[in-house]
Design a protein that fits this description.
356 residues, seven-stranded antiparallel beta sheet, four-stranded antiparallel beta sheet, 6 helices, globular, metal-binding, transmembrane, Extended_Synaptotagmin, transport, calcium ion binding
């Protein structure tokens, strides 16, 4: 299948990614791929998990542990600035979710196929000519890391690739499903964090300037920085949409802010299916990947209701809680799907004639 998958990837690059890049910035209006060769080394599937509980009977959910290490040749150019760059090799490792839905009673038995990553995959790209690309006006504030984050997030839920296999399937409902719920994250405080700041060439151990990065899929939040404190209190709250469960997780990383490179203070990963079961979790969690440190979180699972019958009750409960965030909390969710447009005005480019 690999040669045909490569054909699909090339089509995706030219018909989806190239127009998206052109529209993202005026300076990139002449961006184009001049060559796309993904290489002969196929993607490996190292493991498959099939979900049999808490799933709709008209769908099959697979989680694929994928690994791709390929020597590819992708060339791109921005004609306006005579700039050329390319990619010599790509590595990508992560969990890709494949949803087969809806199941139907006629061949091919599956109405459509949806692909996406549950969380940001590990992505490494070996560039050629990246310095030339970053010299383009409007891009000089970017870096290799920022570009990788942009590409990775494009692959992560709620973004998804949906391929219809029959003509009758409602593709819009599959590409833009209603979220399963909302998780409200009270990012409260931490205790006994590691002191990363040192003085007198490391002889004197200092404190840290901790902050947190919270992720649910490609939704990313960053807390404020608490200066010189190993027991910081943030008392911040965030709300994130949950599109897939089981499978989606709440990811938190703590860092010490530094002028050069921020130091790692610990991480935490919580399965959102547990939050949904409990509805409310208010606990101290031990941080992973470090020798000490705890994080206090309060997590609420909010279910979406199709009518406004309970809206007054929800508004009352939000007003009654005095410890909420300063900017308030959500009481409802507006979902807007832009379907199509018609009879748009034609835009003309007027050019003055030059005579010699």
């Amino acid at each position: 299948m690999w040669p045909f998958i490569c054909q699909f990837i090339e089509k995706l690059f030219r018909e989806t990614i190239e127009p998206a890049v052109r529209g993202a910035n005026n300076h990139l209006s002449t961006f184009s791929f001049t060559k796309i060769d993904i290489g002969h080394q196929p993607l490996r599937i190292n493991g498959v998990k099939v979900y049999t509980e808490n799933v709709d009977k008209r769908q099959i959910i697979l989680d694929l542990q994928i690994s791709f290490v390929g020597n590819c040749e992708i060339d791109l150019e921005i004609k306006r600035y005579f700039c050329r760059a390319g990619v010599k090799s790509i590595q990508i490792h992560g969990t890709m979710r494949v949803i087969l839905e809806p199941l139907i009673g006629d061949m091919p038995l599956i109405g459509a196929l949806s692909l996406f990553f549950l969380r940001k995959p590990l992505l490494e790209i070996n560039w050629t000519g990246l310095t030339n690309l970053l010299d383009v006006p409007g891009l000089n504030g970017l870096s290799d890391t920022i570009i990788l984050d942009i590409i990775s997030n494009y692959l992560v839920l709620p973004n998804r690739i949906t391929v219809p296999l029959v003509s009758e399937v409602q593709i819009a409902q599959l590409r833009f499903p209603i979220p399963k719920g909302v998780v409200r994250i009270h990012f409260i405080e931490a205790q006994d964090l590691e002191g990363k700041d040192t003085y007198l060439k490391g002889i004197v151990k200092g404190k840290s300037d901790p902050y947190g990065i919270i992720r649910v899929g490609n939704q990313i939040f960053q807390s404020k920085v608490i200066k010189e404190n190993l027991n910081p209190k943030w008392n911040e709250v965030y709300e994130a949409l949950v599109y897939e469960h089981p499978g989606q997780e709440l990811e938190i990383e703590l860092f010490d802010e530094d002028p050069d490179k921020d130091d790692f203070l610990g991480s935490l990963m919580i399965d959102l299916i547990e939050v949904e079961k409990e509805r409310l979790l208010d606990e101290w969690f031990t941080l992973d990947e470090v020798s000490k440190g705890k994080l206090h979180l309060k997590l609420e699972w909010l279910t979406l209701m199709p009518t406004a019958e309970n809206l007054d009750k929800v508004l009352t409960s939000i007003r009654a809680d005095k410890d909420q965030a300063n900017d308030g909390l959500s009481s409802a969710l507006l979902i807007l799907y832009l379907d199509s447009a018609r009879n748009l005005p034609v835009s003309y480019v007027l050019m003055d004639t030059l005579s010699l």
